[in-house]
Amino acid sequence: DIVMTQSPDSLAVSLGERATIKCKSSQSVFLFSNDKNYIAWYQQKPGQPPKLLIYWASTRESGVPDRFRGSGSRTDFTLTITSVRAEDAAIYFCHQYYTTPITFGQGTRLEVK
Amino acid sequence: QLHVQESGPGLVKPSETLSLTCTVSGGSISSRNYYWGWIRQSPGKGLEWVGSFYSTGSTYFNPSLKGRLSISVDKSKNQFSLRLSSLTAADTAVYYCAVQSEHDSASGPVRYWGQGTLVTVSS
Known about the structure:
The complex is a heterodimer of chains A (113) and B (123).
Chain A: E1 4-7, E2 10-13, E3 19-25, E4 30-31, E5 36-37, E6 39-44, E7 51-55, E8 59-60, E9 68-73, E10 76-81, E11 90-96, E12 103-104, E13 108-112
Chain B: E1 3-7, E2 11-12, E3 18-25, E4 34-42, E5 46-54, E6 59-61, E7 69-74, E8 79-84, E9 93-103, E10 106-113, E11 117-121
């Protein structure tokens, strides 16, 4: 199985500041034939299911604000929230869909100060 | 807009079999645009993919569930169901219907999630 490891486990960021969440996969999730990284990012708020933010490592889902940015390739990926807002307080998960079993990171809790 | 909703018991006894159903609206379960399946979430194990199927009839299961899992489809009701046998406390989790988009004949990100149903395994 591909193991997804996120860092940090939690972080606290002031309003308007930048939040950076890392995700490392235990093997490459890049497919040369289509030049894509099989990585998604989700946001989960209490009592709700996860919500898709980013797929193909850097493509924003429709309706997701452009302050959410995904980057990275092969085994190292980053979710950046460029100017954090109060409503961004949540847990964020990375996810690889390169191969089954699909797997998720353990989650990073974002607190907004 | 696709919508999926889980239904099933909230409490199941150890060693028994869990049956959950996912009802799909806003789209057809026969669609070749999606993979349909289940993901569970527990405090101890985080998000764990359970299994999924595609409209061609192909099914995909998490090997960690070691043959305890089956997924069935009722096209007339636009529903699919999960059966997980030989339950233990480790199967206690919130179970989500999960719909992955299809891309190049493989599954993509989870684009649609149900609200989730808490299943507790306890005597």
